[in-house]
Design a protein that fits this description.
Number of strands: 9
Radius of gyration: 24 Å
Shape: globular
Largest sheet: 4 strands, mixed
Structural class: alpha+beta
Length: 502
């Protein structure tokens, strides 16, 4: 027993020494950083009083003029919060090959849904990106437009029923979440869950749990992302089992049913099935490229849901929140929508939507003020020199690009807290440095589904602004309280607005 206690104390001492050694990295380098706390690094306020994006934004503001980046500890992982926009460009575009990985936990053997385009790295990511890129062309979006538009029409009908007799205060995010769930249910899984009429649809209930439930507590999850190779060796999983089983089952059933009955719907699932059944080919280097496995199909459908459900609905909610406070902008947008539809023979088509340039500016400005994905993560493959020899980046360093802070930097956006869609006119965009607007990332690893996300938001907002007037109610929280729990930006208590039928 005495020997066991001595060994235990020795192991504990070594563990504490090792953690303190990890958390002394930036001090040894002599680079600016906040003092870390044991085990949590610089994340002690995370999910308590601050959102993770706010923590990164604070670091950006504090150290912007001290060097191209500031030292940071993402729990126990040495990280660099980039504060120089030229270095952001080099990391995301020019020197992308050294920063093409995110370094997040994924284990497609034991946790198949993590084998998706967002989480994977290396050759697996490159092959998936190559295979999936053709599924998000403008032509494919045009094919899916009518599917999404039909659900947009249903969204209008449901809200009309709520407001037909008198204006009502509605929590708009609830309806928008059900709209995007119906869209992705149909396009990615072939399921018509009709949650706009049935808020308790299983697909939506399980889907919401993806954002609110974890298989482990945040410390264990943090360790899995800090030491992903060890977590994979231990065959750990991060997605709750019943959620994983649900998505694997519905994809297997959908694929089997469509293949058996030779059903084609011109949606995302059709494209994945085509990739699954594609014969092996060779790339320009002679390497054999195979089709997708059934697990691959499930993983890509899953990330399509994760990327498109909360992000698009929250973006539309924030747009309505800003438009309710800026009636002149809302009126101008409504005029554009009505005039453009009239110009297209009173038909809302894909070409009609593409003609709504002010609508796109409204969405872009919403994404600047409220970027749902408020930071980007990359990992250095090898040693990297910046413009200052003192500020080199070592292999394995995690890179944080604080999009929220960049979007609110007055150097790039004067009066950054004001909602001004005109910032995204062609002339204004040209006058700003590149990589100052990053809601979809930038470079070869940008969001592959950005066209679909924007189309979904454009369709939803067109039906809403054309048919309803949104104003501030006494229940509207201005400013809204940020929910510090999820990784995406969201209003903690929802967005309550007065909705009046036009």
């Amino acid at each position: 027993m005495e020997v066991f206690i001595v060994l235990l104390l020795g192991a504990g001492t070594l563990f504490v020494f090792y953690i303190n050694y990890l958390l002394g990295y930036w001090k040894r380098r002599g680079l600016p950083h906040d003092k870390p706390e044991f085990l949590v690094g610089n994340m002690n306020e995370w999910r308590k009083t601050k959102h993770i994006a706010e923590i990164f934004a604070d670091t950006y503001k504090q150290y912007k003029n001290t060097g191209p980046f500031a030292g940071f500890y993402l729990l126990m992982t040495k990280s660099a919060v980039i504060t120089d926009i030229d270095l952001v460009k080099r990391i995301l575009i020019k020197d992308f090959n050294n920063f093409d990985e995110r370094g997040l936990f994924h284990n497609d053997r034991d946790d198949p849904l993590t084998g998706n385009l967002f989480d994977t790295d290396g050759d697996k990511w490159r092959q998936l990106r190559h295979k999936l890129t053709p599924t998000f062309t403008s032509g494919k979006m045009k094919n899916m437009f009518s599917i999404v538009s039909n659900i947009g029409s249903e969204l209008e009908a449901v809200i009309s029923e709520k407001t037909i007799s008198a204006p009502q205060v509605l929590e708009v995010n609830e309806f928008l979440g059900r709209f995007t769930a119906d869209v992705i249910g149909v396009c990615a899984f072939g399921i018509e869950c009709n949650s706009l009429r049935n808020p308790n649809a299983e697909f939506v209930k399980i889907g919401r749990r993806v954002f609110t439930e974890s298989r482990h507590n945040k410390v264990v999850e943090g360790l899995m992302h800090t030491f992903p190779d060890i977590a994979r060796m231990l065959r750990m999983r991060i997605i709750p089992q019943d959620i994983s089983d649900f998505y694997m089952r519905i994809v297997k059933d959908t694929v089997g049913y469509r293949e058996k009955n030779n059903i084609k719907r011109n949606d995302f699932m059709d494209m994945l099935i085509d990739l699954k059944n594609r014969k092996p080919t060779r790339d320009e280097n002679g390497k054999i490229i195979t089709g997708l496995t059934e697990n691959d199909v499930a993983a890509q459908s899953f990330v399509f849901f994760v990327a498109g459900f909360e992000t698009s609905s929250t973006t539309m909610g924030f747009a309505l929140y800003e438009l309710a406070q800026n009636q002149d902008i809302q009126d101008k947008l409504r005029r554009e929508i009505n005039e453009t539809i009239k110009k297209h023979n009173n038909e809302f088509t894909y070409e009609c939507m593409k003609d709504m340039h002010y609508l796109e500016q409204v969405i872009d400005e919403t994404l600047r003020l409220h970027p749902v994905g408020a930071h980007l993560i990359r990992k250095a493959r090898s040693h990297y020199e910046t413009s200052d020899p003192k500020y080199y980046i070592e292999e394995g360093t995690l890179i944080v690009i604080p999009s929220l802070a960049i979007h609110h930097d007055p150097e790039f956006y004067p009066e950054p807290e004001k909602f001004k869609p005109e910032r995204f006119s062609a002339e204004e965009i040209k006058s700003r440095p590149s990589c100052t607007w990053l809601p979809f990332g930038e470079g070869p690893r940008n969001c592959i589904g950005l066209r679909f996300g924007k189309m979904q938001a454009c369709i939803g907002l067109t039906y809403l602004i054309k048919n309803f007037k949104f104003t501030v109610a006494k229940e509207t929280q201005i400013p809204y309280i940020l929910d510090v729990e999820p990784l995406v930006l969201n209003a903690k208590n929802g967005i309550h607005l007065m909705v009046e039928k036009i």
